[in-house]
Amino acid sequence: MASFFIMREILSSLEGLGFPMQELTVADVLKTLNKSAKTARAKGDFKVANSRGSQAGRIGDYREDYLKLPWIDGDYEPTAEELIGHLEGNKQRFYNTKTVWAVEADIIFLKEKFLKSLLYNILKKYMSEDTPAIQAEAWKWNEVIDEALDRVRTLDSLTGLRNREGLFENLEDQIDTFHKSKTKFSIMLIDVDGFKKVNDTRGHDVGNEVLINLAKDFKEEFEGTGEPFRLHGDEFVVLMPKEGVGQAKKKAQKLKKGINKDYTNYGLTLSIGVAEMSEDILKVANSYDLIDPKSLILALVDSATYLAKDQGKNQVVNWDRVVTPKALAIGASQKEKQMHKALRGLIELR
User: Fold this and answer.
1) Residues 314-336: tens digit of each pLDDT
2) What is the maximum span of the chain, computed from C-alpha positions, in angstroms?
3) Please, are residues 27 and 77 in contact by the beta-carbon 8 Å criterion?
4) How far apart are CA 73 and CA 66, in angstroms?
5) CATH homologous superfamily for the domain 164-349
6) Pair 277, 175: CB distance under 8 Å
7) Any idea where the domains of the chain sit in the sequence?
């Protein structure tokens, strides 16, 4: 799977062949977002309008942060590629002022916009040719480009695993298959105990190296039986198609023991929550207008992982050991309240 940086090198090499490589600026991105928000608002789609407006605000904040760098001229307008590098290099700092989800989503969004702008220039040159054969070739490459961009969109740039968006797409497919054919599957949420201490005492470079190595270990452990995804930070999810919760727990225990042994020098252990898809999950999820099976089963393994950490960490916990969901925060949204009720409903059905 091609990474963003590999694709960037390939595209840059085309400059020598006469392809225009016009750089996309952050101002261009903000203009596009604000225009999209305005259009959505005019159509009455206030959810999209607010989302685009919020994203424009965050990217504007990143831009201002970049312009404060001592070697940057105040009149300089950064490119999207420069801002991507700035965000990648300062993720932890931005996590303190924005949500993790927002920062990761903004990085993916900027990468998509950046690559599309370069690829558009290439296709524009191809499609301006009069020869039908060249135009046909351009349209063929357009499909390849869309596929490549989709891979970039669902790829975690640090670990090479598929990211949160890739997880959601795969999980929806698994749930759809279960709904149609009752093909079982299990899911586990892995929280790396002690990772924050590694970051705080050894630095983020070492922390990133640890995450990369953990991702490799997860891929090797689940090869042929499941796929690991990086949810965010030091949390990972593994989907195990056609596997029941019993087999998933055995794999989780084996993984936990291996990590305990191999990462002793870092003081890392794993807290793992496990769940299996069921008819009850579908039934309960469909009883609420703001809840879907995907978010409910993720909430189940999250509750199980929370219990594992609360009981001393370094444990594997099946969701059926969860007695009560995590307490609702003050000012919880309507969706959070429905999720709390849904979890309680599942516990009562056991």
Assistant:
1) 999 999 888 888 888 778 889 88
2) 70
3) yes
4) 10
5) Reverse transcriptase/Diguanylate cyclase domain (3.30.70.270)
6) yes
7) 4-153, 164-349
